[in-house]
Structure formats: C-alpha cells, structure tokens
Amino acid sequence: MHNYKKLIFICSTNSFLSPLAETVFRRLSNLNIECFSRGIVVMFPEPISPRVNDILQSTLGFECTHESTIKLERNDITEDTLLITMNTSEKIKIVEEYEVNEVYTLGEFIGLDVDVKDPYGQEDERYAECTELLIGAVKEVIKKLSEG
C-alpha cells in the first residue's frame, strides 16, 4: 500500500457525506495522516448540513470538525494524497477533471460493492442508514490504512 500522508473524502456538495466521513476519521484514527473533505460541485462556501452534527452527537457523541463546504482544488492533491469518493459517478468526475489515478470509491477501497448516495431530502430513516454505513466504512478505511 502507498504511504499516504493526506486523505480527502469527496462527495458532490461537501455538505453531508464527506464532512461526516472526515469527522469520523479524525476522531477515531490515530494514524499520522491528515484528513480533509471536499466537494465537486461547490460554487461558494455554505454551512454544512445541520444533520451532520445531530447525527454525530446522537451516534458517537461528538460534533463535526468541518463547518462549511469547500470545493476540491487541484492544489489539494499531491502525490501522497489518497482520494476517496462516496460513489462511482463522483470518482469518474474526479478522474476526468483532475487526471489523477489514486482515487477510489469508499466501497472499492474497503473491498465492498457499495456506492454511498447522499440522502438529501429523504426520510430520517434513510439518513440513519446512510450514517451507519458511512461510519462502518470509515472504520474499515482506518483499519486498512493501519495494516498498510
């Protein structure tokens, strides 16, 4: 496995999924890897979804470390950066737009056939399911990077 110094979780808007993943990674990992989250379609900084803090407080007992949306920029990516998208369509956009090879979907990286879709506008139950999936997947990312 590559010796990564930086990890960026990426979702479309950087308002729910990737900030949640970033926070879980930062709180649960003791690895010497900087972790950030970014979005693909961010026109200007906006506050992240308040559901992120609600969910993190109720499930893990802490708040998000990320406050507003940030667009992924080319200078965010270095040769020692691991990019993890939530789903295949986001991965394709990153590969095409940024011409990088070290990009994986979350499912690919941990060896599961799963795409994480943003639950925006759906019922609370869908948010809870998505959160549970994401927390478990981030724990697997930490485990895999620890073994690497």
Description of the molecule:
With 148 residues, the protein is α/β, with parallel strands linked by helices. The protein is built from five helices and four strands. It has a four-stranded parallel beta sheet, with helices on both faces. Strand 3 (81-85), helix 3 and strand 4 form a beta-alpha-beta unit. Helix 1 (17-28) packs across helix 5 (124-147). The longest helix has 24 residues, at 124-147. The protein is globular.
CATH class: Alpha Beta
Our count of domains comes out at 1
CATH topology: Rossmann fold
**CATH architecture term:** 3-Layer(aba) Sandwich
Share of helix, binned = 40-55%
Determine the mean pLDDT.
Answer: 90
Helix-strand layout with pairing:
Elements: E1 6-11, H1 17-28, E2 34-39, H2 50-59, E3 81-85, H3 88-98, E4 103-105, H4 106-110, H5 124-147
Helix pairs in contact: 1-5
